[in-house]
Amino acid sequence: MHNIKAFAFDAYGTIFDVFSVTALCEQLFPGRGNALSQLWRAKQLQYSLLRSLMGRHRDFWKLTEDGLVYAAKSLELDVTPDKRKRLLEAYLSLAVFPDVKPGLVALKNKGLHLAILSNGEPKMLEAAVKNGGLSAFLDRILSVEEVAIYKPSPRVYNLGPERMKVSHAELGFVSSNSWDINGAASAGLTTFWVRRGQGEPPEELGFTADRIVETITDLAAMV
Amino acid sequence: MHNIKAFAFDAYGTIFDVFSVTALCEQLFPGRGNALSQLWRAKQLQYSLLRSLMGRHRDFWKLTEDGLVYAAKSLELDVTPDKRKRLLEAYLSLAVFPDVKPGLVALKNKGLHLAILSNGEPKMLEAAVKNGGLSAFLDRILSVEEVAIYKPSPRVYNLGPERMKVSHAELGFVSSNSWDINGAASAGLTTFWVRRGQGEPPEELGFTADRIVETITDLAAMV
User: Which of B45, B69, B91 is at the close of a domain?
Assistant: First the structure.
């Protein structure tokens, strides 16, 4: 791993805890918060894949709204315009996992370039980074909007080496999602799968992570 | 709808009841059959999308096995080689929904050309059609293997008009999956969404079905 010159991090689920919206879901729909946030997240991701294959790209802010609309209808919840707005805006100030800031600081102290490489729409990523207090530790925010297709298309992962001026193998890609790790590995990046104690098996997609780490604070010792 | 000259049917979930494997799952893993068949099916579909976007096509028979392997690991079920073989082979003799045969007969009697247009690997489709007693009513079996990418890529839906020698609008595409209807509509086919009493809302993917029908027997009266 001594050849790693930069890191690119997945955002949602890796830097930011998307289920931090569950509390607001529960507050607005008592007893249904968990069901709503789970289905909302599943649809948001599924729509990113389906639209990419259809060749009908739509940015992640709008997909997040589409996923919420579907989830509300499916669960028969009355998501009024005001509730919809509050739920969507929760994506602009998601909780940051506690290992993120110390992990990024340790990597910055080693002189590594750090970026986010995410499905997110640029403005929603910028807001989440700023509100999470991470602006000082990230050199770049790379969004799929530059290529108008979602992960795990190789066109997304190729943005990292292109923009960060390193080779594919020199870029460490960090994600807590096994499918994302498979996509990055398939594109030739060096991959780090963050587990945070979660027990799900790796996805059966043909690739394995180069390293499995428990937390983002584990990364600095590896490079 | 008077311009419809041919119909293409989705296979799994529309012609064949994929959850007919649930009984075998339950027999092999008492109390866990439903969880296994649900997760297995979800992974099979998710892997078709992920691999298509990765540009790493793998046929649906192998994806079906990959989905089963993941589901077994995730649910901590000991799927021995013998059990794996029995579960996979259940895909070769899936139950046919009861409205399918009378619906196809009525359309054949009107002189329409009928095909399957499916994610399935050709041999597994042929076996299911034969074991389901449907060979006499279907003129063609079109598989994504011809284009090596999965639905909802337009390359898959375009196979229908190309091979059946009709225009996109003249081909009626029939599916019980709303995302599949969206993909076909996006590619320009005339779409018929089969509900069979299911209450899920349509997917928020930008398209609507040209017609919603309860059963496949409803189609003949429309053309």
Answer: B91
Claim: this prediction has a pTM higher than 0.90: yes
- Each residue of B156-187: pLDDT tens digit? 999 999 999 999 999 999 999 999 999 999 99
Torsion angle, alpha carbons of B43, A208, B149, A47, to 10: 50
Residue A135 within any structural domain of the chain? yes
Q: Which residues in A lie closer than 8 A to residue B62 (C-beta atoms)?
A: none
CATH number of the domain residue B45 falls in: 1.10.150.240
Alpha-carbon distance values, A132 to A165, A176, B121 (Å) = 27, 18, 47
Contact across the interface for A200 and B151, Cβ inside 8 Å: no
Same domain, B118 and B65: no
* Successive 10-residue mean pLDDT values, chain B, 223 residues: 91 94 95 96 97 98 98 97 96 96 97 97 97 97 98 98 98 98 98 95 98 97 93
| Residue length of chain A | 223
Mutate to test the interface with B, among A151, A178, A204, A207 (most CBs of B within 10 A): A204
Say how many domains are in chain A: 2
Which of the residues B53, B84, B178 would you substitute to probe the A interface, choosing the one with the greatest number of A C-beta atoms within 10 Å?
B53
Q: Considering only CB atoms, which chain B residues are within 8 Å of A47? A: 203-205
Q: Of A134, A201, A150, A177, give the one whose Cα is nearest residue A12.
A: A177
> Is ipTM over 0.90?
yes
**Structural domain harbouring A194:** 6-16+94-222
